[in-house]
Design a protein that fits this description.
The complex is a heterodimer of chains A (about 300) and B (about 270). With about 300 residues, chain A is mainly alpha-helical. Chain A has a single domain, classed as MetI-like fold (Orthogonal Bundle), CATH 1.10.3720.10. Chain A contains 13 helices and two strands; from the N terminus they run H-E-E-H-H-H-H-H-H-H-H-H-H-H-H. Chain A has helices at about 20-45, 70-75, 75-110, 115-125, 130-140, 150-155, 165-190, 195-200, 205-215, 220-235, 240-245, 255-265, 270-295; strands spanning about 50-55, 60-65. Chain A has a two-stranded antiparallel sheet. Chain B has about 270 residues and is mainly α. Chain B has a single domain (about 60-265), classed as MetI-like fold (Orthogonal Bundle), CATH 1.10.3720. In chain B, about 80% of the residues lie in helices and about 0% in strands. Chain B is globular. Chain B starts with a helix and ends with a helix. The chains are: A mainly alpha (about 300), B mainly alpha (about 270). Chains A and B meet through helix 1, helix 3, helix 4, helix 5 and helix 7 of A and helix 1, helix 3, helix 4, helix 5 and helix 6 of B.
Amino acid sequence: MTTAVVPGRRRAPRVTHKRAIAVFVAPFATLFTLFYLVPIGYAVYQSTLVVEREGTFGPPTQVFGGLAQYAQVMQSSAFWDSVLRVLLFGIVQVPVMLGLALLFALLLDSPLVRGRRFFRLAFFVPYAVPGVIAAIMWGFLYSPNLSPFRPVTQSVDLLSADLVLWAIANVVTWVFVGYNMLIIYSSLLAIPAEVYEAARLDGASQVRIAWSIKIPLVMPAIILTAIFSIIGTLQLLAEPQVFRTFSSAVTSTFTPNLLVYSTASVPNVPLAAAFSVVLALATFVLSFTFLKVTQRKAFQ
Amino acid sequence: MTIMVVFTVYFLIPIWWLLVAATKERGDLTTTNALWFSDLNLVENLAATTGYGGGVLPRWLLNSVLYAGGGALLGTLLAGMCGYALAKYRFPGRELVFNVVLGGVLVPATALALPLFLLFSQVNATNTFWSVFLPSIVSPFGVYLTRIFAASAVPEELLEAARLDGSGEVRTFFTVAVRLMFPALVTVFLFQFVAIWNNFFLPLIMLRDERLFPVTLGLYTWNTQVNQVPELRLYVLTGALLSIVPLIVVFLLLQRFWRGGLGTGALK
């Protein structure tokens, strides 16, 4: 990992270039504070409120309610169902997607494949399709009437309650494999050729080189893609929201973020804020734990 | 090699299908081979799609270009300045700033959408261009990436030399450092552009006026009306094709940059 220690200057006795530093840092810091820190604080604040009414028809007022909303979150079966659903989704989809991405990156980097430029571009193109648009496209592709694969879609209902989660998983995989492949591939390209020399002289096969040398060396890149994938999975929103128009099996509480959205539109803002806070914390804890467990410095 | 060919089909068939579907007459969508052209109707479809609803689709595309292009440009500049300062100057609180920003990388953007909506409604600024534009400028990941890149790509001696020549710090950044940091800046720009172009939750929550919609939200609303207005199905498909063309163009134009730069964050 990088350290920003400036060579040749041991200890700066005082801060020089104060004005320049302010000019460089202040704009970002201001916006970051306004649109990251303040909203987080505000969400936490909102989540401590409860709505009270005078009588049945009185105007609603918001008063401090301590952790009342969090007690509700803990008891909300809709919330935990949605969390379990995205966890199940992630446990299957993330390894499949990253496995494919790694396989393609290794193949591109090996002498086995010709036409690298073409494949790299072909696999990356779906990343140019926004999640919403990809979901709309696949929604049509899954439909029994419009699909080019009608023999399949008419015999198996891909939009049924049993399968729709995996139908969505396919959309996400389709969009992101190429992107993750590129991240891993550019990290493979950065490995100097001499690293392989000894192995090649010893007569190691391509598979052996990939397994024992390449994969360990690109581990930081794989971990980085895994973290972004975990965050993305917990945040699933656009794809299932689109699929609601194709399949009645996708409810308004299908994923945690859909639940946040539907709760906020009730409107029950304090509860929606509490959902948001718990979800953000869970995401943070999960990706941070993952980072610690893998014990590599992909981030610093 | 076989694997690569099979998956090329998997990745490209949906796009091929979309291209073919956008050239068809509405009746042919269900009756003809979905993977091959029937009578070419692309021009009529484009005209009908862009004209529907008083020509709202071109407006959505323009909005997306403004949100994503403007936001990514400004966001990259701000992130680049901040990352550069964190890499090249020593000042109290530097590590704190960096760690807070790094925490920001792990905060899911969608978790911010609801509180942002509440804050903007406090100042009566929801349902405005700025309510979507301003929050999307902030890129913690950009600061992380540019800091790492600047630390190794911008040599201290060069900055000292510029100082001796009497160049101010800010001018040195724009004339010397920006050039050296260019690969990282392009990467940040691309990430940011794609992230904003794909953004859905924030505009969904923030905007009511359909003239402010980005193209993703616009096509989503059309798609929800397909059952009531059957001709919209074809317009959604044609619109989807139109909406991915700009991104593919950006990718192709900046290809030589993202090819090298994309892994920068993971490499160091």
